[in-house]
Amino acid sequence: MKIVTKYPDGMFSWVDLNTTDLAGAHAFYSGLFGWEVDNQPLPGGSSYTNFRIDGYTVAGAGELMPEMKAAGAPSVWTSYVNHSDIDAVAARAADAGGNVFLPPMDVMDVGRMALIQDPTGAPFGLWQPARHIGAQVVNQPNSFVWNELQTRDPETARAFYGQVFGWNEQLDPSGYIMWAGGDHVQCGCMGIGDDWGELPSHWLVYFLVDDVDAAAARIAELGGTVLHGPSEAGGMGKMLVAQDPQGAMFALIRFSGQADEPPGH
Question: For 144-255, CATH number?
Fold first, then answer.
């Protein structure tokens, strides 16, 4: 297993789950991915979970605050972009038309975070590492491997993320937008179709698995729901989109070839 020790600026480095039922999420994701559950208490009586593979961090989870639950906030995965100066990034995001709905703040001694909503309505996070670098395991089975912006306004999104992060843009033959942080192609963008219903713009996290069909069966056994697939992904491999039992959306993929090397490898 290849362990990440540092992320370059502008690369997704962490994903975490805000859920209405943390114990239920522990059962589902440990059952689906074999993740170890390291749940630690926080000041004020709450807790935060680091999911791990062989002791190395792979993702996080926390329970939605009571007032968010009362307001009907859904369970959701959030993807975080690494940067050594998130104050400057948050300022660029605001200048580019984004909404900084959680300004940069220290998270004890583990790092600094902010939450942004892009001009198309998709939320994402910023992470400035201190003691916690982000996911130590990525681009390997049962870890996150891709993030995809599904948006109702791809052109506005392209301008925004280019201004904020300077991502390099590539188009595949189908017109699918791929963004690279430096030399590493790490995320994509696609337009939400009229037949998708009222789905808002959002970032969807993809986890790598060895067998998408087996994972689909396991999702159902654990009380989740497969929303789309398993299906072939334009020659890239096989994928599906699912919801966990608390309603948080995520995707699974098995590539036809090899996944990119983790950062630093």
Answer: 3.10.180.10
